[in-house]
Structures are given as C-alpha cells and as structure tokens.
Amino acid sequence: MMGKGERGKGGRGEGDRGSAWPLRLLLLLFLSPFLPLSLSQPVRAQPRLVQLVNADSVAVDATSGETVRTLVGNVVLRQDTTTLRADRAVQRVEAGLVTLEGDVRIVTGGDTLTARRVVYDANANEAVAEGDVRIADSSAVLLAPTARHHRLTGVSTFDRGGTLYHDDVTLTAPRGVYDDRTEVATVEGGVELRDSTTVLTSRAGVYDARAERADFAGDVRLRQRDTRLWADSLTHFRETERSLARGRVVLERLGDARTAGDDAAPPDSARRTLLFGARAEHDERAGTSRVTGTPEVDPLLVQLRTDSTGATDTTLVRARRLDALRRDSLAADGLEATFTRVVGVGDVRMAQPRLAAVADSAAFERLEPVEDPARGADTLALVQDRLVLYGPPRPSVWFEGAQVTGDTLVAYALGESVERLEVTGSAFAAQLDSTLGRVRQLAGRRMLALFRDDTLRVLSVWPTAEAITFRATDDGLLAGADRLSADSLAFHFRGGELREITGHR
C-alpha cells in the first residue's frame, strides 16, 4: 500500500513538472521585454531613416562603406510626418543626413521651411538652412539669411539677422530664437519691435506674441504718436498700450499740433513735457503717466514752451510722485480742446521764470483749444491754466519779491500770462520794500492778487485784514511804520512799486 502511494505521489510530481515547463516558457517570453537590460543583449539606437518618395534620377554609391544617394529632379523625401522637397539632394542613408539644394521646401504639420540650401539631420530632427530662409506657421513668418529649425519642437534659431512677422508686429534683431509652439521670441543685439502705433528698440528682449507682451532691456526706447520713453528696462503690453519702465526713466510728451478736421498733423515739438524718474507707468490709450523716484532722488518734471520769437519758458517741478493726464475734451464754448493735468504728491517744489512755489501737493491743469482755421482766430491765445497748491504744511508762492502763504493757493493764467492768485485760509503776504529794505506784511482770511501782463497790479485781503507798511523821507530814508486794520485792505502797484493802499470799514 505504501509503495503504491509513493509511486502515485511520484507520478503526480513528474506530471506537474512536465506541465509547468511550457507555462514557465510562456511567462518568460511574456516578461522578457520587462527584464533588466543587463539580462538582454545590447540594443543599438537605429538611425531615423528618411524614405525616398520620388526623384527623376538616383545614383547610389556604397564604395566608402556607407550608402550615399545622389538625387536629381523633383526630389521628394519623407520622415514620419515631415516631407522634404528640393531640386536635388545628397542623402547619406546610414548617417541620416540629407543635403538639399535649389528651391528647398520642408513641411511638418503646419510648419513650412523654404530656403536655397538645407542640411537636414534626421537623427537630431533639425534643419540648418541658408539663403532666403523663410519659416512659417499658422500665425508667424520668420525671414533670415540663415536659420536652424527643429521640426519636433518648432524652435528656430538665427544669428545673422532675422525678421519675425506676427499679425501686425514686425520684430527685427541680429540674433534670436523663436518658438512657434509657445509663440515666444527671444532676441538680442539691437532689437526693434514695430506695429501700427509703436516703435520699440533695445539691446535685447523677449516678445510673447500670445500675451502681446514685450519685455525689453538695455537702452530701451519707445516711440508713440506724441510720446517718447527711455528706460533701462521696459514691459510693454500691446493690447492695452500700457508700458512699465524701470531705471533712469525719461518720459517725453510733445504738444498737440492738430487743427480742427486734421488729425494727421505731427506733434508740436515747441511744447514739450519731460518726466524724469526711476520708474514710470504709462498708459497711451488713457493718456496717463505716473513717475516715481528713489528714496534719495525725487522725480522731476520739466515743461518747455517756445514762442514764435524762439524764447522758451521753462517750468521745473519736483515731488515724491508725479502723475500726468492728457486727453481730448470740449471747451465751454464748443471748441475742440486738449486737457492736460499734472499732479505732484509729497514735498512739491516748483520753479519758473516769474513764479516759484512749495506745497505738500499740487495740481496743474491746462485747457488748450485746437486751432480752427475756419474760425479765423488765433485760438492759442485762449489757453487756460490753473495751478492749485495744497497743504499741510501751508503752501507758499514767491513772485516779484513777494511771498504769499495760505491753506490753499490757486493761480489762474490765460494765454500763458498769470491773471490772478487766490488764497484761502490764513492768508499772509510779505513783500520787500526795495527802497527801505524792509518787508511789508499783509494778512487776513482770504487774499486775491490780480496781474496784468504778468505784473502784479492789486493785492487785496479780507476779512479781518491787517497790514504793516513803512514810510520813507524824500531822501529814501526810513521815516516810520504804519499798522493798518480793516474789514478789507488793498495794495495797488504800478511798475512793481506800491502806489496806494485802500481800506474799507
């Protein structure tokens, strides 16, 4: 019994082994692709073959140990989804190299490369082209004398000059890289970006065509219709026409020389506003600019006005921050006009030939009618200016040897000549008596200074007006002083000299 059982068990064991070997072989065959490389034979990378589709004539040379095909006439080759066409070609089959000449055309999906000569590396998937190179996709065209193009990544490189056309943008540079998948161009060596409204130049830059954003650096210059901007670096958004400038910023805005019915007139260089600072934000479409400085140096505004005689008036303004606004508007009498507003915030200092001022903040506004030949009038004489100075501390203005201080000061000018100065809240004026060397003083709640031809004519104060004046002898010596008080007082001037004082109640 025991013998039978053992033989039976042994029989089952032999049968199991016999049936397991085919199963093991099947498992080994199934798992062999996943075994470590050390357990299999070394595998050599095969060259990416370029297939011959057509040629009028084919000559094959294999004497040097490699296969070289010389193809002439209507040459068509193909690698995967790439088609290569040329008048003639030399193909090194094993190396995967093809030299194509004469009306070369390479098409991969939506990308097309044309040139007079191309060396195509099938293993690197790269084409080196020269002679009237043109690389185009669905949205952009690159023109260059020579270029290198990778067919899988869509990256093109040029180093002997190139021009990229994308929508209405023209980007030119000596060297650059363009990725047609991301639509980003990186260029250097003297760059120019141009569209219908803007010309932007620099030493180097990156242009993102999808975002319509240009990041340029190195001697950046931006030119728009009446705006010029210089900076160390700049970010420009084409869709919104906004620019962010950094480092040694100069923003220049030219005057508007348009006439009624003629919007094509060039800007007026006789009227210029320049903003200097460390950072600027400019919105061409909204007509706004903001300039800031550094903790050590505040931004500066320089306003230049040149008249018909060639004389130039200069206004200088410094502040912690300068904001400028310019837009077209309508004057009260229906004339087309340009409105300009400049705001200085924080420690404002202003100087011009006939007036100087300090304040915590200030606003300068100008309404400048557009000349209308049909009206037959010199509308430039109707230019209206308004300057507002705010505290605290209390702002001050200096003119013709006088200082005027108050809580708020407002100056008005017509035709670029000062008309009046209004002071509200704790008004105080002091003027040097040039004869006696003493200072006249005038105080009250409110004050009004009236001018004619930029010369002070009347200085009045009310209510609770007080004044201190000095008397002189016929020899010009001090004869005494008078202290006056009234509901209102007025000083009358002629030729810059005090001629009369009047008081009421």
**Integer-rounded radius of gyration:** 41 Å
Strand content: over 45%
Residue-averaged pLDDT: 85
Instruction: Calculate the terminal CA-CA distance, rounded to whole Å.
Output: 151 Å
Secondary structure class reads: mainly beta
What are the low-pLDDT stretches, counting only 5+ consecutive residues below 50? 1-47, 377-381
- What is the β-strand count? 35
Overall 3D geometry? Answer: rod-shaped
Largest sheet: 35 strands, antiparallel
What is the subunit organization of this protein?
A: single chain
Helix content: under 10%
Count of DSSP-assigned helices: 1
What does this structure look like?
The chain is mainly β and 505 residues long. Helices cover 6% and strands 64% of the residues. The protein has a 35-stranded antiparallel sheet that branches.
Question: What order do the helices and strands come in, and which of them pair?
Answer:
Layout: H1 2-31, E1 51-54, E2 57-61, E3 68-79, E4 82-92, E5 97-108, E6 111-121, E7 126-136, E8 140-150, E9 155-158, E10 162-166, E11 169-173, E12 175-179, E13 184-194, E14 199-208, E15 213-223, E16 227-237, E17 242-255, E18 268-283, E19 288-292, E20 300-306, E21 312-318, E22 321-330, E23 336-352, E24 355-369, E25 384-390, E26 396-399, E27 402-405, E28 408-414, E29 417-433, E30 438-452, E31 455-462, E32 465-472, E33 478-486, E34 488-494, E35 497-504
Summarize the structure.
The chain has one helix at residues 2-31; strands at residues 51-54, 57-61, 68-79, 82-92, 97-108, 111-121, 126-136, 140-150, 155-158, 162-166, 169-173, 175-179, 184-194, 199-208, 213-223, 227-237, 242-255, 268-283, 288-292, 300-306, 312-318, 321-330, 336-352, 355-369, 384-390, 396-399, 402-405, 408-414, 417-433, 438-452, 455-462, 465-472, 478-486, 488-494, 497-504. By secondary structure, it is mainly β.
